[in-house]
């Protein structure tokens, strides 16, 4: 059968990893602007890479340094977006997923009116995208909430942030109602317990009970997501609003029933956020988890009504790797993954950063999500970070990247042939950018090479990799030509 006509092929980027221009045209600092590059920390030590304290935040605010705060410079998409979007147009993109930096529109998050220069920037970006017939897919919150809200309110722990987020989103809906049809509310919303500061602006040393605060932040984000979904439908007729999940597919380490149970428990927690946003209610097992752990989450009957009445139109997700679980972690060799450390599957190869490469896992994930939710799906992040070499003649021979995508596309198409309703696919990322977890440039994902190193040195020139021509042919053939 293959992919349907009108399938949305493209790529995905986010403001805090590409834009730069962190303190110009009225933009305020975001949580991403205090993320540091830590060259002396193992790139596989995820918790140390993203760790933050009140002290480290204050230290960051006292400097304009961009060398060790790489998300402040990104790849200068803020000034180079016409060049980059032209390259995406040459690739044949049908869609491009971007995010709108909240602190570029509301610098502290508390302003009554938006920063017009910020709105004007995104208006120009959307105009450029439409020039090449690229459909925008916009994430409203992608790890870049205003830093002021983290410092003053401990982020999403405070219910007042809901109204601030709603004001930001409503400004975007009104401003871009003629430009954007597809919206996502929170990127990888389930990640609050894995990196509370990055995802929800929670500063751990400000919390007396971090686990409770994390789930309270979850609840406030769920309510906010439902409210802005309602607003989007009312302000932009025909708009589609999706949730965005981290699909952390996990297998039992063995057929031992205790390993099966350990894997079941991990997968159940991973589904939690999707269940709330698709079904509009908390799963019974999660409510029991709250009770057993003494987590008294403040939620009103009105909150529950809002969740039930404003569910998402489609389910989008990231998929990079899979893990294995055991009742006894001593039985496992651990390795890094997307925002997690998990059991390494001995049957799978790994990337330069230790992430397992599991194309069949993408098919499994698509089947699992569609069987559970009965909603259209959208793969909005998938790709591999690798060490690329720029040759003297400015070429990048990345057959390993082509092999990775080819095998994942084959499995994705098999899932569609099995009955999955799939809207589109956006690779992470079509152009090299500053890595979310390690803040590195050397962890390269793109079909387009950016001449910049981990310390921000380089010409910033863009060069097409071998995979550029290959992906161009894949899109032109709607996935039929994978050779």
Strand order of the largest sheet: 1-2-3-4-5-7-11-12
Which range best describes the helical content: under 10%, 10-25%, 25-40%, 40-55%, 55-70% or over 70%? 25-40%
Which CATH class applies here?
A: Alpha Beta
- What is the CATH architecture assignment? Alpha-Beta Barrel
Total domain count: 1
How many strand units?
A: 14
Q: How big a fraction of the residues is strand?
A: 5-15%
Kindly report the CATH topology: TIM Barrel
Q: Roughly what is the average pLDDT, rounded to an integer? A: 96
What does this structure look like?
- 40% of the residues lie in helices and 13% in strands.
- The protein has 483 residues and is an alpha/beta fold.
- The chain has a single domain (8-476), classed as TIM Barrel.
- The strands form 4 sheets. Strands 1-2-3-4-5-7-11-12 form an 8-stranded parallel beta barrel, surrounded by 4 helices. It has a two-stranded parallel sheet with strand order 6-8. The protein has a two-stranded antiparallel sheet with strand order 9-10.
- The protein starts with 7 loop residues before the first strand and ends in a 7-residue tail after the last helix.
